[in-house]
């Protein structure tokens, strides 16, 4: 769903540009599609998995550009998931075969990464919770 939103935004950007040349927007769209299809989400990681061990586990499927275990900002402890980026989408597609396999004692989940929709942080709400009229 997030991918469709990103792709649609790039299409609109290309269509509404005043330039008569569509080469740049099309190249931008293709790069976005390529980037999204070569990045994987890896969930269910053990607490002991670090960036290097994640990279080593997935490098058998192709050239890993980046492997990152996401950590808690305050404690520095793994949050149990990470991302692996490949140089090409064929390698990423092959690495989907790791889904359900064991890595450091845990069965991991592997899928294509989707762009997270940004939303404002905080409790939201607002207003007076006093319950009375003024």
UniProtKB/TrEMBL annotation:
Keywords: RNA-binding. GO terms for molecular function: RNA binding. Residues 38-115 form the RRM domain. Residues 121-134 have a biased composition (Gly residues). The keyword Manganese does not apply. CDD domains: RRM2_NsCP33_like. PANTHER family: HETEROGENEOUS NUCLEAR RIBONUCLEOPROTEIN 87F-RELATED. This is RRM domain-containing protein. It comes from Kalanchoe fedtschenkoi (Lavender scallops).
